[in-house]
Amino acid sequence: MKWIVRLLIVFAAFTLIIAGSLFYLLKVYPDFEIAAPFDMINADYKIITINDANVLIENNLPYPTDFETRSYPKQNFAGIWKMRFDHNETGEDERWQDTTETDSGWMDVKVPSTYNYYNGPHSDHQGVTWFLFKFAPDPDIANSDFIRLCFRGVLLRSKVWINGELVGSHEGGFSPFFFDVTKYLKQGKENIIIVRADNRLTYASLPTKSWDKHSPGWGVYGGIYRDVYIEGMPRNYIFKAVVDPKIEDIDGEKVGTVNVQVFIHNYDSKKHYIISGSLTGPDGVEYTTSGYLYRSKDEIETKTLSFEVKNPHPWHPESPHLYRLALSIKTDSKTETSMTKIGFRTIEVKEDGLYINGKKTFLRGINRHEDDPDLGATQNDEIINRDLTLIEDMNANFIRLAHYPHNVRELYAARDRGIMVSEEIPFYIVGMGFTAWFEEKQGILDFPASTVGIKQLKDPVLMSLAQRQLIEMVERDRNNPAVIIWFVANETYTLFEEGGQFHGWMRDVIRL
Hints:
By secondary structure, the chain is of the alpha+beta class. The strands form nine sheets. Strands 4, 19, 20, 21, 25 and 26 form a six-stranded antiparallel β-sheet that branches. Strands 7-6-8-14-11-12 form a six-stranded antiparallel β-sheet, with no helix packed on it. The protein has a four-stranded antiparallel β-sheet with strand order 5-16-9-13.
């Protein structure tokens, strides 16, 4: 009889331990207070408010929306660079950033490219890699008011030097980043740009490292895998546009209005400038605004232009009509124009489904990764058009761009073809480490609670990074009518549900 009592006591104790552990993981642990990203200090960005509009500031420059073309000069750095692996992470201490002549330790590499693509000789490399490129600014760029350097994508974090001087750094591999490099360049002479890149995942990176043997669910690629270029910028230029196209029924006639909030960066204030715009429809009809003369007072200013369009042609997957929007700024007899394409498109979610421009639309879609056996994460027009054609042949009308912002050329192509897309940041499985751990039948006592799971959602560095990348994504693609959904990611913890703290800051970000 005693042994039965002892057995029951052991069983009860064991049950309490298991129940307590599960209660801690599923209830107490998730309910820990989590800092709001907007309140974090020492972030590498800031958000300022101008006339009730928010602007992201990175590297002392306002973060731009994407325009397909700009009239100011651009010098593309696509071509052959030098690359060197830094297996022991000694390069910075040994001053590789001061390199002027390369030796046999450096190899040729094409930029943009992914150096560890599946069919290549370095497919398993993860770690620090250095890149070097020599150039002289084109004369029209050298004579500009200031020069902006743009990287469209470097995996996963990077530091940039020009002529041995540190320009800055960036964390995140899927969004463009920009630097003012005017003071670092030698005009009329050879310049050397050096990039230190590191593609390794950490517990505070996006995508995140869940534990030592767990990948994010897609290839951990590396390299300068999207375009790099410098731009000759004017002292007063348009860096952002927020487009609001609407269609109303007025006296039985369809009338479209397009309000465009234009954001101007006055690199040099106290200048006069004229803002104007034109909107050209798919039928060739052009709508223009009169030029408005302003005298700059602040470093960042906003103006609003409006267009009225009779009988507008809406953008819909079955008929993706587009309007060409050109925004111009004129200073001292010099005019600069930025162009993008927009569409009249509304979204409604009703009890019985999703409505695009008032028409019930069923999403028939797939997930797509930037992944090619010979190019890795690098995407060219041939690959993009090949895949989109295959998707259309499947009778699909929607793509989830998994799990990160894709090359902007894919979003242009999807827009032109009438394919709807959703975008997300690489937040996949953050906060969910303990569920995946148990699904893979790992031992409960071995769970790395100090680094993964809800612990990640309490990491101010990771949360600040997530917020910044979400803003970068929204800012880049905000005017593309093909984008119908922005979200953080799938398989994230339920703090992102309506009313949760994270839901609040995500909503505020999208309102930028």
